[in-house]
Design brief:
Two copies of one chain form a homodimer.
Chain A lengths: L15 E2 L12 H16 L3 H4 L5 H13 L6 E4 L2 H15 L5 E5 L4 H14 L4 E5 L4 H4 L4 E7 L11 H10 L3 E5 L11 H4 L3 E4 L13 E5 L1 H4 L38 H10 L8 H22 L4 E2 L11 E5 L3 H10 L2 E2 L1 E3 L3 E5 L7 H16 L6 H4 L6
Parallel strand pairs in A: 1-11, 3-4, 3-5, 5-6, 6-7
Antiparallel strand pairs in A: 2-8, 7-8, 9-10, 10-13, 12-13
Chain lengths: ~400, ~400
């Protein structure tokens, strides 16, 4: 593998893009593949596209491709829906595996939608269920034999702090709990070995480090030995054993296929499948080494040149995902000023300036160039104008 | 309005497409709009697209457009997810409105996924809930004061039989039940006046008569006076009152926005929004009249020339959607033979040959041309070859 693979992306001129952890950039070839899908598949094949163009198998086919990036065996990952829906599915399935327990354990560093979906599920179950949220560093100590499931996002969306997947999974399972990992900021960002972790369930999204495009579908992993036992709560027809028999009662399909729900978003799937070609010859160990080096360089440069910013990500690269965050009281305005100068990171309330460093299309020169501009903005208080101080809705 | 609008679609040469009730054809302009979305929006704007390109408002904006076609006021419809997920959301919300009741009433003509999703929800609630399924003609008599919700698909996917929305809604509500309509085969096919019906909830899909493309997102309607009271079970971050405040607890957004869940499929949304432009000057009363006339013509021609086929759709156009179905013992093989000759309908087990007649792009000449070929196939038993008799997977 050679990194970076900047030549495989259509990046706008004059932009240093440090927000691939929110939305990855457009890989080359995606536009052409989607156009072909629209005209030669949908347009020309019409309803026949479902069979003739492989639309029906796409969610599993892409699942296998993503599986290779996260240490999941063939046939254990399927695409569909949004990450929030996949969290709900995984939680419902996991609770069903521990019917005598009532607690979902998570942490305050989890992405809020994961917590919200747990709250919604608990509201439905009406039987004394509880979502227990502790600080990230207290998760291990909070695992006991009342816990039905431990639900964690491996890499904290704000700070990049990374949980130890193997250790926490082992701890959860020793206490009899089911382990669910959210890999939103892991897949395509760090080395993940789901099979080795022995975790029962995992979910993730594909529009961040996997560059699948805005609203690209999510994925769900079920440990292969469990897939045939899970009771799907979102029991849609495409998870049925015989969807086109139109039987009156739900019978789950074999294996991971039962985690499908409704008709897959074929246009998004086409974009995603092409976007994943970037990964064909990427070795995740190489990528991880390059990512840690870029993050280390960024931290060193910012700390050397921008003393007003305080690192809130782990300094130790082995405890950090592929992003670096700094706290700064005027972080919102500074980020707007930075974006106006062509360095795109993002801001998370209350004061977090967040930068994704993705070695597929970011190199050391980009890092130094970005800090040049950041230092100039801070040294000269260029953020201190009404244009940048006025909060707009931040995505 | 002038019908048909065949010039607004990219239909393949030599094809008579009578399956727009499964997947509508490609409207002109969609490919160009999607290409622009990929390059000028995602590619050039990157993460800024969420604000700069209106991606965040798209689900509500498209909801308003679709609302005009189904008699729903502005701000009462939102797009997202799949129809199965929207059915689940609507069922969970409706059951929550009648906490003292335990029965969901539906009919055997409903699309199976709607029934499956109800089964999945009931499995979660663990409190004596029941899905009661009766024959379509027995729904009225089965409504009593044990029923929490009545869930019906207005137009039967197999036969085209149409429920009387106003009457059944009134009957359900008189018995204290919440009414949920699935408009999968109604939206864009017939006149629907949701507001006049007074129904609490409705859902539908956009890849059939609305031509949004394979896997286009679904929609959900909530009667405006109820929207602020509903408790969303699929409580995702984009249905939160302040998604970007990243609060630990879910607080539903005002109105229909709370029925959003996760990140919307922006590429699919772009295709759908362009596809809906076809409807700009369509009067639904004109469309309905044209649809009934086409279906009547098709029935008359088939009955005159194909005596082996038995009509299973209502003969009375006022009791039928925009499709016509015939039973034929060799229906599977006959449909394959028909498709091979360029007339695309579809088959539904065990013996249903189904034809969608959509006046936007089908005219009387198409109907006569299709029956010419059908009659030839039947008269000469052209279906009776191994090629067509061998069942393949049917979508």
């Amino acid at each position: 593998m050679s990194l970076p693979k900047k030549h495989l992306f259509d990046l706008p001129d004059g932009i240093i893009y440090l927000d691939g952890n929110s939305l990855g950039p457009l890989p080359k070839g995606v536009t052409e593949v989607v156009q072909e899908m629209l005209t030669a598949q949908w347009g020309a094949q019409l309803i026949k596209g479902w069979n003739a163009c492989g639309w029906m198998e796409q969610p599993s086919r892409i699942g296998t491709t993503i599986g290779r990036l996260i240490g999941a065996p063939e046939g254990s990952v399927v695409l569909g829906d949004t990450l929030s829906i996949k969290v709900f599915q995984a939680l419902a399935a996991g609770l069903n595996m521990r019917p005598e327990r009532r607690v979902i354990l998570s942490d305050s560093g989890n992405f809020p939608s994961d917590l919200y979906m747990a709250q919604g599920l608990i509201g439905l179950k009406q039987a004394g269920y509880e979502l227990r949220v502790v600080a990230p560093q207290e998760v291990g100590a909070a695992i006991d034999d009342t816990i039905a499931m431990v639900m964690l996002t491996q890499v904290d969306y704000r700070t990049g702090r990374m949980h130890d997947m193997a250790t926490l999974t082992k701890q959860a399972q020793s206490a009899g709990a089911v382990m669910l990992w959210d890999l939103a900021h892991s897949a395509g960002a760090i080395e993940v070995d789901l099979a080795a972790s022995n975790a029962e369930l995992a979910v993730g999204c594909t529009y961040k480090y996997l560059n699948g495009g805005p609203g690209a579908p999510a994925f769900i992993y079920v440990r292969p030995d469990l897939a045939d036992q899970l009771a799907p709560a979102l029991s849609g027809w495409l998870g049925h054993d015989a969807p086109f028999a139109f039987e009156p009662d739900y019978r789950p399909a074999a294996g991971i296929e039962r985690m499908r729900v409704g008709t897959p978003p074929v246009i998004q799937m086409a974009a995603l499948e092409q976007a994943l070609c970037v990964w064909d010859d990427v070795d995740m160990a190489d990528l991880r080494a390059a990512s840690v080096a870029l993050c280390d360089l960024f931290i060193a440069e910012v700390e050397r040149r921008c003393p007003d910013l305080t690192l809130i990500s782990p300094r130790d690269g082995t405890k950090r995902g592929s992003q670096v965050s700094f706290a700064f009281a005027h972080g919102y305005a500074a980020m707007q000023a930075l974006i106006a100068r062509g360095v795109i990171g993002d801001f998370r309330a209350p004061d977090v300036m967040r930068f994704g460093l993705t070695p597929l299309y970011i190199d050391a020169a980009d890092v130094v160039g970005a800090v040049d501009i950041l230092a100039d903005i801070l040294d000269n208080r260029l953020w201190d104008t009404p244009e940048f101080r006025t909060p707009k809705r931040v995505t």
